[in-house]
Design a protein that fits this description.
286 residues, 8-stranded mixed sheet, alpha/beta
């Protein structure tokens, strides 16, 4: 029997007689990320990065110079997973800053949540020039969307493989770990207490998304269903949906169509700014 099946078996049994204890253990498991090393293809980009430390101790990698683009990886992810996109942004003349999320990489902390990730995005944005775009993958995308509700300002936001609501993620984890119903309810409440926000509030249907957006997802993503991207898009009036037939949850980050779509969005933003400036000059001259 595998260790996972062993844990599931214990949860399914003890969860009936000691639901709070089992839920507490699973809450710690859920909020404690593993430290996964970079893949070999990430190392060249890692070697060319400048390591910076933000005001409250968060670590980040920086490349290039020019207008700023901020990147937020997903759960147990790394900045260099965005390698293909980072390289394209550098070539196009952007400064790229990619965070190590709380309790990830060299950033401090032992536990993390979408709320802590969102606060990290806000902290980074407060120390950077006005952002041309913020791009988030998976839970990083969910944290970016939440950060926009907490005051984040960016000309555009891109989500990749992102869930539309956190309560669904919690319930899926609880079911996967074979928690009985009462233990599941305790688990959700404990996560909410530690995160400091009700899970029901972390839902795009409650958000006011007033910036331009690009929602990217692969149809064969087995971790976050593609229907989540459709739900985000439906609730984001100024967004574009790019649904790819393949790419899974992680490989999609290196898909050339993803890179092209992001760069096209940024080019459109630059064109719109140029038009607005010319119109302002015209009316001021009259």
């Amino acid at each position: 029997m595998s260790s996972l099946n062993w844990v599931r078996g214990i949860n399914a049994t003890l969860g009936w007689v000691a639901p709070h204890a089992v839920a507490s253990k699973m809450r710690r498991e859920f909020m404690t990320p593993r430290d996964l090393p970079p893949r070999s293809w990430e190392l060249p980009l890692l070697g060319s990065a400048e390591r910076i430390t933000l005001r409250f101790g968060l670590s980040a990698l920086r490349w290039g110079s020019g207008p700023a683009v901020l990147l937020m990886h997903g759960w147990e992810g790394r900045p260099t997973q965005f390698a293909a996109l980072i390289e394209a942004l550098i070539r196009a003349g952007y400064a790229v800053v990619a965070l190590d999320g709380p309790a990830h990489g060299r950033s401090p902390g032992q536990e993390a949540s979408v709320v802590l990730f969102a606060r990290a995005v806000l902290e980074a944005a407060g120390e950077l020039p006005p952002l041309k775009a913020v791009i988030g993958h998976s839970m990083g995308g969910a944290s970016v969307l939440l950060a926009t509700q907490l005051g984040l300002r960016s000309e555009a936001v891109v989500t990749i493989g992102t869930p539309s609501r956190i309560l669904t993620v919690l319930r899926q984890f609880a079911r996967f770990m074979a928690l009985p119903p009462l233990a599941r309810a305790h688990f959700v409440r404990l996560v909410e207490q530690h995160a400091g926000m009700p899970a029901a509030h972390l839902d795009v249907t409650r958000y006011q998304l007033d910036m331009r957006g690009l929602v990217i997802h692969a149809a064969d993503d087995t971790m976050v269903p593609a229907s989540e991207a459709e739900r985000i898009h439906e609730n984001w009036f100024d967004s574009r949906l790019l649904l790819l037939e393949s790419g899974g949850h992680h490989r999609v980050l290196g898909d050339p169509r993803v890179v092209s779509a992001v760069m096209e969005l940024l080019e459109e933003q630059a064109g719109a700014r140029g038009t607005a400036l010319r119109q302002d000059a015209f009316f001021q001259a009259r």
